[in-house]
Amino acid sequence: MEKKDEFELFWKLLLGRKVNKKKAKEVYIKIKTSLSPQELARRFNILYKTTGEEKYVPHPERWLRNERWNDEIDDNNRDKGVFRDKDGFIITEEEWKDQNKLN
Question: What's the pTM value of the predicted model, to 2 decimals?
Answer without folding.
Answer: 0.70
